């Protein structure tokens, strides 16, 4: 059954993918291996989204299929104790900005890819990002912002995290008007043009 689940998820065939998981579990397949294969399928969806073959509704639907797969696997994963979170990420919309839709999609995609996400919400003050990074031990912080006034807040947040003695923390920025020039202004390591790019950056930085 190797590869079948990944293919079904990549093709957004929800019913068939879930049936594939059920049958595999009946045959005592390794739940951790099934989870890894499902994530391979999700990665293909991300590639198709990047090539504009899939769109945001497809991306969200693939995440819903992934959640359903995880629900089926969860009892077995707990039994086998092989389930492991990919890593921790802190994310929030910076001070002065209340846009939430794009950030919500990034949080959703990070979570279905196995990351433990601390979502600080909107209009988040600089100190809250620093505190959350320290408390959670997260090695990745995501700063979201849509308005141009968010750029200064992003820069101040990056500087605060750097000044807090957290050199291992990688910072990504994202939002409607973010580009490489804005990324350079803020001092962040990278910017993510969409939710799948945020997942790719997290994987590059902390694995998963």
Question: Can you summarize this structure?
Answer:
By secondary structure, this protein is an alpha/beta fold. 58% of the residues lie in helices and 12% in strands. The chain has nine helices and five strands.
Please characterize this protein's 3D structure:
The structure is a single chain. This protein is α/β, with parallel strands linked by helices. The protein folds into two domains: 4-80, Methionine synthase domain (Methyltransferase, Methionine Synthase (B12-binding Domains), Chain A, domain 1, Orthogonal Bundle), CATH 1.10.1240; 87-206, Cobalamin-binding domain (Rossmann fold), CATH 3.40.50.280. 58% of the residues lie in helices and 12% in strands. It is built from nine helices and five strands. It has a five-stranded parallel sheet with strand order 2-1-3-4-5, with helices on both faces. Helix 5 packs across helix 9. The radius of gyration is 18 Å and the shape is elongated. The two termini are 23 Å apart.
Short descriptors:
five-stranded parallel β-sheet; 9 helices; Methyltransferase, Methionine Synthase (B12-binding Domains), Chain A, domain 1; 2 domains; single chain; 208 residues; elongated; alpha/beta; Rossmann fold; 58% helix
Percent helix, as a range, is: 55-70%
Number of strands: 5
CATH architecture of the largest domain: 3-Layer(aba) Sandwich
Instruction: Quickly count the helices.
Output: 9
Task: Give the helix/strand layout.
Blueprint: H1 4-10, H2 14-26, H3 31-50, H4 56-80, E1 87-93, H5 101-112, E2 115-119, H6 126-136, E3 140-144, H7 150-163, E4 170-174, H8 180-186, E5 190-191, H9 195-206
Parallel strand pairs: 1-2, 1-3, 3-4, 4-5
Helix pairs in contact: 1-2, 1-3, 2-4, 3-4, 4-5, 5-9, 6-7
């Amino acid at each position: 059954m190797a590869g079948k689940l990944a293919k079904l998820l990549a093709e957004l065939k929800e019913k068939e993918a879930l049936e594939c998981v059920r049958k595999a579990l009946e045959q005592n397949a390794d739940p951790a291996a099934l989870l890894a294969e499902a994530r391979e399928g999700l990665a293909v969806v991300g590639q198709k989204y990047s090539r504009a073959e899939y769109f945001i509704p497809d991306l969200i639907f693939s995440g819903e299929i992934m959640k359903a797969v995880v629900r089926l696997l969860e009892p077995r994963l707990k039994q086998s104790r092989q389930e492991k979170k990919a890593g921790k990420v802190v994310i929030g919309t910076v001070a002065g900005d209340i846009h939430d839709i794009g950030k919500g999609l990034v949080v959703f995609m990070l979570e279905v890819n196995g990351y433990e996400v601390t979502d600080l919400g909107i209009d988040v003050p600089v100190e809250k990002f620093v505190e959350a990074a320290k408390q959670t031990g997260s090695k990745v912080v995501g700063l979201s912002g849509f308005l141009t006034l968010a750029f200064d807040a992003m820069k101040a947040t990056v500087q605060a995290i750097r000044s807090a003695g957290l050199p291992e923390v990688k910072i990504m920025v994202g939002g409607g008007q973010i580009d490489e020039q804005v990324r350079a202004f803020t001092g962040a390591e990278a910017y993510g043009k969409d939710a799948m790019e945020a997942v790719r950056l997290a994987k590059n930085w902390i694995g998963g």
